[in-house]
Amino acid sequence: MATEHFSTRFQDLDTWPSLDVLSAFYEGQLSAVAAVRPSLPAIAAAAEEAVGRLRRGGRLVYAGAGTSGRIGVQDGTELPPTFNWPDDRVVYLIAGGVGAIMQAVENAEDSVEEGVEGIRKNDIGPNDVVIGVAASGRTPFTIAALKEAAARGAQTIGISNNPDAPILEACSHPILADTGEEVIAGSTRMKAGTAQKIILNLLSSLIMVRLDRVYRGLMVNMRATNAKLRNRSEIMVMQITDCDEGTAADAILQAGGDLKTAVLIAMGAIPSEAQGALERSDGNLRKALADFSKSE
């Protein structure tokens, strides 16, 4: 496996000046970013299929072990506050259980039974999207989870940093970022981990865009859970409608904090009209604004 290879180039790394060590690490990070570009068509295809399933009420499921599992958790936990994705529609299958997020659990990644049980316990089905992440592409836990999910009709996405890895054969949507050997041999928290984070960021963000949770590059489904985010909500309403701060604040108040509804209210709709326009457009703000404009 390329991610486990030892590079003679870095065999005396521990004797180098600190700046040279950092330069080597930095170079590795840049190569990780470059390794993702060839996978963009695969990411787009995976996202497009996922959208249809998620519109039918499906869940996003992240499966992985060790570093890969933690990176999946990081991606998933950012979706509710950023895009108001429901917490109960994100599932985490981590080898070794929740405790393994904070502390390594030895041998957990080798448990095929645990991977299968995680899928069964969460009753994964045809509307669900299961994303398995494994730098080696050979993690038994993750592969078992993907195979069981596929048998139940779920969409399966496999992310690996090694070509010809079993995980890429075990899923309907293989995504490869061939990051090669690490500066510190086998330390896949570095190049491989960076590439995985980028892929997940791109994948989940595109899914949220296609699910109409972004309008004009703005997070219009965002949860305003603190003063900073409430201020950001007001600014977004002002940017979209060209209204003043007072109008934006009042619209958000009338909308009960729902930013899309607030935009329509700031445009002159009463709350019931705004909600009706959004219902008719299935939550697509662009369509709702066009619908409201026609009805004026």
UniProtKB/TrEMBL annotation:
BP GO terms, sorted: amino sugar catabolic process; peptidoglycan turnover
Keyword annotations from UniProtKB, A to Z: Carbohydrate metabolism, Lyase
Domain of life: Bacteria
GO terms for MF: carbohydrate derivative binding; carbon-oxygen lyase activity; ether hydrolase activity
Residue ranges annotated for the SIS domain, each copy included: 50-213
CDD domains: SIS_Etherase
Entry keyword Thylakoid: no
InterPro entries found in the cross-reference section: Etherase_MurQ, MURQ/GCKR, SIS_dom, SIS_dom_sf
Gene3D superfamilies recorded: 1.10.8.1080, Glucose-6-phosphate isomerase like protein, domain 1
PANTHER family: GLUCOKINASE REGULATORY PROTEIN
Name of this protein: N-acetylmuramic acid 6-phosphate etherase
